[in-house]
Design a protein that fits this description.
The protein is of the alpha/beta class and 201 residues long. Helix content is 53%, strand content 13%. It has two domains: 120 residues, Response regulator (Rossmann fold), CATH 3.40.50.2300; 67 residues, Arc Repressor Mutant, subunit A.
Length: 201
């Protein structure tokens, strides 16, 4: 099983997450950013799930330090601050962004399991709207979600598994996105999406 560091200063929330995923991962707990960094150095985790607002050292500072020396560990953040500014601030360091207040318990656990199994997770519809509301893109909600996965480097097969679609469906969405944004290839598509603030460039 994968080793997962769960960093959260609220013991009750750590217990909730631990009990929900204990059969799918080895859970290593931390209660602040300093302890997160210490546990990271001694346990070599596959995945880090962390709150952003924690004592001693914030989760934001901790993941920036970790990402500077490790480009491959999967990092997901949990936060009540589900704003465009917060997302843009942490986007260079993370693989997943989960809102505590806009997601119900089932959705939070589902997205944590996504991070553990495939290394990324869906953005909430409210977060997608905040990120794309002023982009000027005429993309459907499904296309916006798929575009986000493309920017994160996922192939059509991986996206199909996450969404429960066929590869042919994902490829059709990719063609539509490419046509709407008037680009010729994936590199141009990623550049266009970053420029239009679907993700932080």
């Amino acid at each position: 099983m994968k080793r997962v560091i769960l960093a959260e200063n609220q013991k009750s929330f750590r217990s909730f997450v631990r009990n929900a995923i204990k059969d799918k991962a080895i859970i290593i707990e931390a209660c602040n950013g300093e302890e997160l960094i210490q546990k990271y150095k001694t346990t070599n985790p596959d995945v880090i799930i962390t709150d952003l607002t924690m004592p001693v050292i914030t989760g934001r500072e901790a993941i920036e330090r970790i990402r500077m020396e490790n480009k491959t560990v999967i990092i997901g953040v949990l936060t009540i601050h589900e704003t465009k500014a917060t997302y843009r601030d942490v986007a260079p360091f993370i693989n997943g962004f989960i809102g505590k207040e806009t997601e119900d318990d089932q959705a939070i656990i589902y997205k944590i399991n996504q991070l553990i199994s495939v290394g990324t997770c869906d953005l909430s519809s409210s977060m997608l709207k905040k990120l794309t509301g002023k982009s000027g893109m005429d993309l459907t909600a499904a296309e916006e979600e798929i575009a986000g996965y493309i920017v994160n480097g996922l192939c059509s097969l991986d996206i199909a598994k996450i969404r429960g679609n066929s590869v042919f469906t994902i490829q059709a969405h990719r063609r539509n996105i490419t046509k709407k944004l008037k680009v010729k290839n994936t590199a141009e598509l990623v550049a266009a999406l970053i420029e239009r603030e679907l993700v932080n460039g």
